[in-house]
Specification:
about 350 residues; alpha/beta; Rossmann fold; 12 strands; about 40% helix
């Protein structure tokens, strides 16, 4: 923390998914402590509002997630942009922060608002092409080679020794006691509606069924909470990070929850059907329990790793918190503004 007094700024953070809500809340809490005003916006999405409520944050809801077709995505995105224009017409923020939000990027660029973005999905081509070139500073893990960011037209990148999830895992304490009988395995469903997931078939339910011969399986679905025979499908919001902390094994195709689990010391099996997720390889290299496994070997690996939690406090202490990097960028802008 810097000792000098910063000028209070109005900061806008736009959160499009559950991960962004966690990240946005971690950033907002830090910047509010420094005396800044932070406006957190989000959209209606199965993961955003219940999680925001759980974290005691009241974001402004602007638009919704409409992944039914390319046309619905485009229309909803245009609608959100217009709503933001109206919102900031007379009182724009001094700085905008996002995790590659298409609407935030376009509005900040259009209104001349300095824009900072975190970034860990070079495989999400559509999103990258529509956000990276409009961003002033990209904050990115050293896991991702700079050419993977620069190829999308990045102006400036600041790298840190860690992954995004460190932002909310560093001081994480489960707020909910999970009442499933032990041992239990969490299988996280593939994100099937994202633009980058087009043409990828979801094998997670099949994997969950296979694993139910070993332990109770909690199948964490994304959009449909329909009960499934032999699996536990939570019927209402459950804090996935608390779940990952208390599970005996987490199995996924390598999204946020895979890294959360490993950073919490829970064995995490990744079936890499989405290509090019450098941050997962990085987490493994740093000796956290994240293991890449072929679909045919999942059962064998699950038997091997089930219940083998490891103590990760020292490993975690070696990683940088990206919120520190964002704080430094904001304070620099604040000091320039004061002078």
């Amino acid at each position: 923390m810097h000792a000098h007094k910063v000028t209070e700024m109005k900061i806008w953070y736009d959160a499009c998914t559950g991960k962004h809500i966690r990240y946005g809340v971690a950033i907002a809490q830090r910047l509010r402590k420094l005396g800044h005003e932070v406006i957190l916006t989000t959209r209606k999405h199965p993961d955003t509002l219940p999680l925001a409520e759980f974290l005691n944050e009241k974001p402004v809801v602007v638009g919704e997630y409409a992944p039914a077709s390319k046309l619905t995505r485009l229309k909803e995105s245009a609608k959100r942009q217009l709503l933001f224009c109206k919102m900031f017409e007379n009182d724009p923020p001094d700085i905008a922060i996002m995790h590659v939000s298409i609407e935030c990027a376009r509005v900040a660029f259009g209104l001349g608002i300095p824009l900072v973005s975190t970034f860990d999905t070079p495989h999400a081509e559509a999103q990258c092409r529509l956000t990276v070139p409009l961003t002033d500073t990209i904050v990115v893990s050293k896991a991702i080679p700079p050419p993977a960011v620069y190829r999308y037209g990045a102006k400036k990148i600041v790298q840190f020794e860690g992954v995004d999830e460190v932002a909310w895992i560093k001081d994480f304490k489960p707020k909910t006691k999970i009442e499933f009988e032990k041992p239990f395995i969490v299988v996280r469903q593939t994100e099937v509606k994202a633009a980058y997931a087009e043409g990828i078939s979801d094998i997670t339910e099949q994997i969950a069924r296979k694993l139910s011969s070993l332990a109770k399986v909690v199948f964490l679905t994304r959009y449909n909470r329909k009960a499934k025979k032999g699996l536990v499908v939570p019927q209402s919001f459950v804090d996935s990070t608390s779940l990952a902390a208390q599970a005996d094994l987490v199995v996924s195709v390598g999204g946020t929850m895979a890294r959360e689990a490993a950073l919490l010391g829970t064995p995490s099996i990744v079936v890499p059907i989405v290509p090019g997720i450098d941050v997962n390889d990085y987490v493994s290299r740093k000796k956290f329990p994240l293991f890449k496994v072929k679909p045919s070997d999942v059962l064998k690996s699950a038997k091997k790793y089930l219940g083998r939690h490891i103590e990760v406090r020292e490993l975690l202490a070696e990683l940088e918190n990206p919120v520190d990097v964002i704080e430094t960028i904001v304070e620099k802008k604040s000091t320039i503004r004061k002078n």
